[in-house]
Amino acid sequence: MNDSQTKGGARLVWLRNDLRLADNPALLHACRDEAPVVVVVTLTPRSWQAHGDSPARMGLWRDQLRTLLPALGALQLPLRVLEVGDFAACAGALLQLARDLGAAELCFNYEYAENERRRDAAVCRLLQQAGIATSAFHADLIIPPGQVLTGAGGPFKVFTPFANAWRRCLPRFDTAVLPPPSPRRRAICGSDSVADDLGYAALRERAGAPAYREELWPVGEAAVSARLSLFVAEREPDYARARDFPQIDPQQEATSRLSPYLSIGALSPRQCLAALRASGQSADWLHSSWLNELIWREFYRHLLVAFPRLSRLEPFRPEVEARIRWRDDPVAFAAWCRGETGFPIVDAAMRQLLATGWMHNRLRMVVASFLTKLLGIDWRRGAEFFMQHLIDADFASNLGGWQWCASVGADAAPYFRIFNPQAQGEKFDPQGAFVAYWLPELRAVPPRQRQRPGAGSDAGRPLPIIDYRQARQAALAGYHSG
Fold first, then answer.
1. Is 361 a catalytic residue?
2. What are the structural domains of the chain?
3. Nearest 5 degrees, angle CA 151-CA 156-CA 157?
4. 14 assigned to active site
5. Which residues are within 8 A (CB) of 319 and not within 5 positions of it... i.e. 6 or more apart?
6. Dihedral, CA of residue 225, residue 231, residue 236 and residue 237, to nearest 10
7. Can 285 be counted among the known catalytic residues?
8. Helices (H) and strands (E) in the chain, counts
9. What is the DSSP letter of 149?
């Protein structure tokens, strides 16, 4: 993949999970002069379905793409929508479009999972064989993969030294947010429409998967920018203290709720960094807790590139997983999926996910620990369920988080760290307001008793499906065995 200096001919900009005008290096590169530019998206529903992408996330992606249409039109950038079915068909479809339009160059921003990298490599090979240049850019990371290395020149396997090295490397990559392209008279054809389903109807019909809710996740550059600005101005200063407490009202939550926009590329991590620094809320912004979360996101992407086997759902620490015998328990798994385990904080978190496509980050760790450590069910099943339901489903972060909770990942939680659901609920939802909201049967239960396993059973809540102490001892014995 080369950074072309092509002269003459139209250029294609292939948008994927980078649905924005600002801080989009591929788009800005393509629009560097008066040459005609066409924006193209490829619809690959069979690949999306194989990857388990959630209907909520794809609805957000679709509506964000729609909001780009008038903005692209104002820049004289027509949109072409190619319905190609799967990743394997992208190369041929893009080559045909390039030939039809007389395009001399294809510009795009990197994606890092193995299937996406193979798709992009196949596209580049075919186009370059036809004499069409390709130019690729890093837009989904602040620091590209391979640039944060140990003293021995290898990838980091533990987060804290990675984060320290990342901060030291930042000045070399800490450039300004790229502006959107300037309006020019460069159009060569009109735009396609953006269909309602984008070939994604089958996933919307998945049982129990929540649909995209626009009132929770408004799209468009102005709405996303406003959410970022509000967070860094009003919530980020209290983020370190309050981030672990789930709230009923999203407006009261300390978390940023920006991850869905990062997932589809409506917002870039560099825009987040710039907003944090410009807010002036913290003199030591470089060590803020929220920036630490952005660095975790970078860490997991760097790992995907350095260790491609992770994209194939192999554990980072196979020697740990070799000691574990995952249980095949469809009844327990179904209870976990439905939010019917009898443990209030677990069930409330799962009900929130099923209703909204969102789950608070602390609760993601609690329910993942419950599934893997206490139920003994393979982390891959939980990771797949999250991908199918989360509006911010992100392959790298989801994979890293589940392996962390199962103690088989990079810098994972030690095997003996097993979240006690009752203790977690009492600490982070002490009055039981969150669990009572999502589990109405608990509203008649005194607040201080709402986190107890089996609470509300006389009003229809299920009894606990496990005994916590026994399950914890079994988990410890399992991780010790072998």
1. yes
2. 10-139 (3.40.50.620), 141-177+218-306 (1.25.40.80), 318-480 (1.10.579.10)
3. 140
4. no
5. none
6. 110
7. no
8. 21, 5
9. B
Which member of 379, 398, 404, 420 is catalytic? 379
Q: Can you tell me which residue has the tokens 């962390």?
A: 404
Out of 293, 298, 336, 398, the active site residue is: 293
Residue from 83, 114, 285, 326 carrying the catalytic annotation: 326
| Nearest-angstrom CA–CA distance, 255 and 257 | 6
**Local confidence pLDDT in tens for the 482 residues of the chain:** 444 444 458 999 999 999 999 999 999 999 999 899 999 999 999 999 999 999 999 999 999 999 999 999 999 999 999 999 999 999 999 999 999 999 999 999 999 999 999 999 999 999 999 999 999 999 999 999 999 999 999 999 999 999 999 999 999 998 899 999 988 766 566 667 665 555 545 444 444 688 899 999 999 999 999 999 999 999 999 999 999 999 999 989 999 999 999 999 999 999 999 999 998 766 789 999 999 999 999 999 999 999 999 999 999 999 999 999 999 999 999 999 999 999 999 999 999 999 999 999 999 999 999 999 999 999 999 999 999 999 999 999 999 999 999 999 998 778 888 999 999 999 999 999 999 999 999 999 999 999 999 999 999 999 999 999 999 999 999 887 64
Which of the following is catalytic: 61, 402, 404, 438? Answer: 402
Q: What is the pTM of this model?
A: 0.94
Select which of 361, 384, 426, 441 is catalytic: 361
105 is catalytic: no
**Per annotation, catalytic residue among 14, 217, 290, 296:** 296
Residue 73's Cα: distance from chain center in Å? 29
